[in-house]
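Support reply, case 0932

Customer input (verbatim):
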Amino acid sequence: MASNSDSPVPLVGPVEVGVLVDTVLFGCALLQSCVYYKNSQRDRWPLKGLVALVLFFLIAHFGLLIGWLWNTEVAVGGAAEPAYASVILGVVSILGAIVMVIGRCFFLSRIWKMSDNRLLASIFCILCAFTFTVALVASRAFFTPSTSDLTSQLNGDWIIPLAMVSALVCDLLTTTTISLYLRAQAHIAVTQFVLSPSERNPLTNTLHSTTGTIGLLCLWAIEANLLTSSLDIAVVLSYWLAKDSFAWFALYTLMPGVFANSLLAAIHSRDRLVVDIEQCAIKMDNTLIDQRRARVSPARSTPASIKID
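Our regenerated output:
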């Protein structure tokens, strides 16, 4: 492998790091997909097709990244890259944008179902479409003639930071909205019963003992799209702090894998969430019955006195 000083392709290092980590993400996505199709007998075909579509684009994204590394490092030995090499990165960028927009649309559908607010859902839909469009436009930087300086164009193109910032805003708003609605629904689920102060503490303890702190944190991280938002922040910070190192490009290549795994994990969490709700409801019901029986039993054992004037 040529050194960084001799190699005219400074993106090789970031792509190598990205592919190394993306291999783990790709394997996790494959494993989650296999588990999903094994246990998805009750799901309808649109959801099964969505998982298959995400897996197809993720395989193409991962395969083209490896193909670009092969052509740049093995086929030409680190010399000037072939004319079609930057085009491969452009296709990789487009495929990654498709995977990310599918993930955002999935979480957008959850906002629609939870809020039942058409205006809010429409705003998020417009923001998601804008983010996807900007990402597609940003990929044009890779479709350059072989005589152009690709790295200078990536550093000087204003559309690339716009794509990063729009993705960050979209994902942070999605995370915040889902988190607020989940918290509101949890509050409603606990306070919808008319409870006396003596009933509230045992009921709260039952709720926490059923779900567990670790389980709640993991479920919130998956459902609220927290992982994707954290990666967006890392990409933006690395771009503004160390743009010339192209560390942001290594992180950007991981985003499709993170989105795919986040989407698949959110789909898998449905069964766990249903089980937790059912167990919690049973324990809450048993707790209320036991407490009310304890209050009623002494009253029944002492007959009321009858006074006759």
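We compared this against your earlier run and they match. Two observations from our side: The mean pLDDT is 74. The chain is about 80% helix and 0% strand. Please reopen the case if you see a mismatch on your end.
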